[in-house]
Design brief:
By secondary structure, this protein is mostly helical. The protein has 9 helices and 2 strands, in the order H-H-H-H-H-H-H-H-H-E-E. The chain has a two-stranded antiparallel ribbon. The longest helix is centred in the last third of the chain and has 34 residues, at about 205-240. The relative contact order is 0.11.
Length: about 250
């Protein structure tokens, strides 16, 4: 049996096992796990074909990155849909930091300005920005509901909406970034990041793989912080109603 077939069978078996365990524990996640696994398989197969085409036609790289940003924004925006303009918030919070830092890395020559280097770099940073946006946004939305009385009290005492929401926003940003920071701190000791593993499997030396992975990880930290800050800022604006009132998700503006 070929190694490729063994890899596919192993991956499929793991997905089925996860779905079975979720079913046994009555978590209600079996369908979601199977759908996620199937989508990943189809998407990766299609992406593999598209990337091969993009590598042969470099101008398509711009369109490919745009699709990645749009997909990330739709995914993250769906999690923030209880606030108006959620998808616009997600687009800005993901695209501006991820594409900005990708541009800097390419401009200074850290990576080659070719689709083969630019697309993976942009993809990693877009993915990190999406995660930071979603985590920050969800914590903001939950906090608006849980701390409604505290916020209303501060407004009644004369605080502006921005000042009343500031502690919540800081807590949301911190809560979103802590697991991302821990992931970076554990790189190489607890986990081997995907870029490092991919480079090693592709034949790169350990030193080269470590240097490239470090560059990407540190860029990712900045991207995720910027995404979290931008998400908090945009959601503060979205939650502010005329007359210095706060929009609480699930409540009709009064």
């Amino acid at each position: 049996m070929s190694r490729s077939l063994l890899q596919l069978l192993a991956g499929g078996s793991f997905a089925l096992l996860a779905a079975w365990l979720a079913h046994r524990q009555r978590l209600g996640l079996s369908r979601s796990l199977l759908v996620a696994a199937l989508r990943a398989a189809v998407q990766l197969a299609v992406v593999g074909l598209l990337i091969a085409l993009v590598f042969s036609v470099p101008l398509l790289a711009v369109a490919f990155v745009a699709v990645m940003v749009l997909t990330a924004a739709l995914t993250s925006g769906a999690r923030l849909r209880t606030l108006p303009g959620a998808r616009r918030t997600a687009v800005a919070a993901i695209a501006v930091p991820a594409l900005g830092i990708t541009g800097v890395l390419l401009a200074i020559g850290a990576f080659a300005t070719t689709p083969r280097a630019a697309i993976p770099t942009a993809g990693i940073l877009i993915g990190g920005a999406m995660l930071a946006t979603t985590l920050t946004g969800r914590r903001v939305i939950e906090g608006l509901g849980e701390r409604e009385e505290e916020i209303e009290t501060r407004l009644a005492l004369g605080d502006r909406v921005r000042d009343a929401l500031a502690p919540l926003m800081r807590q949301a940003i911190t809560g979103a970034l802590v697991p991302l920071i821990d992931q970076t701190r554990s790189a190489g000791l607890v986990t081997l990041p995907g870029t490092f593993v991919g480079l090693m499997l592709g034949g790169a030396s350990p030193a080269t793989a470590a240097r490239i992975q470090l560059t990407v990880l540190l860029a990712l930290l900045l991207v995720q912080l910027l995404s979290a800050l931008l998400t908090a800022e945009l959601l503060t604006r979205a939650a502010t109603l005329p007359g210095e009132r706060v929009r609480v998700p699930g409540h009709a503006p009064g």
